[in-house]
Design a protein that fits this description.
The structure is a single chain. The protein has 15 helices and three strands. By secondary structure, the chain is mainly alpha-helical. A three-stranded antiparallel beta sheet has the order 1-3-2, sandwiched between helices. A hairpin with a 2-residue loop joins strand 2 and strand 3. Helix 9 runs antiparallel to helix 10. The termini are far apart.
Length: about 325
Amino acid sequence: MASGKLDRQPSFHDLRDLTPFRGVQVYAPVRGLGRRIARRVTGRVRAPKLRTFASKVEKQVHAAIFLGSDPERLVLLARAHPGWSGLCYVAAGLHAYRAHQHAQAAELLSRGLAGASGPPAAAFAATYLGGLRHWIELSEGVEVEVAFSEEAVCLALAHSLREIGRPEEALAVMDPLPPSLPAALATCRLYEVLGRPRDVVSRTEGLTNANDVAAALLVIRARALRELGQRPAAQAAVREAMRRRRTSFAVKNAAATERALLMLGVGRRSRSGAAESAPSAAFEELRAATKARRAREAEARELWLREFERLDGGPRL
């Protein structure tokens, strides 16, 4: 494919034959529920068998990664063996990330990306870490299972930076990643945190509901369009998010919430950029219909009471 065509591809269009992404988990915003499940699934990784004549440092790193979950053990190995520092810091950061220690994870993963890894460490990673899977949160309620790779490390680092209030640095971490739906969702969530709805809209142009990640991204697009006052486009994004029958219930629920907010005219902007205080036309129609229905109900109740009084006051035997 020509480079010009590649440049025109959307930011979420992944052209690779093989990607590190394995599965998606969408859960309702119940505190800790999805993360506990993810931790149990991640903990089922079976440690690969070491080669016969493995060096001492290989045995130590192997045991620290597969037989323990303490980041400090890997930090000590990184300090003792400079040629393994990059790999050890990354592995320590992923241990901290799984434990939801985001401040520690952000520091360790940053050191790992900036650190050095010699040929023995690179060979160790290629031989033993290919089967590792990590659940990384892209947005609230959406996690993706990623094989051990640079994308897994960058997505985990971006999430940790977002959690500790450093979204600008998280965006810088996401820049080198190739286009993909998970990366687009994580990036658009950062744009949303930074209050940049126009960037969300431009990055999600042409998106369709192909899977749950795309549906969650469409919900973020609808929120951005609602904030910009583009109500018809926001409604179209909501309809697309709810179109696919097998879309996760949690995503459909979020899309339904956006649809209700659109009907009420919440978050719209005027041409000057300020939020509108007057209710939307859809809200006025809804209020008029409700008033008419209540009037009909009151009239029917009054007729029923008159009929009841007439029957009650009639001749008795």
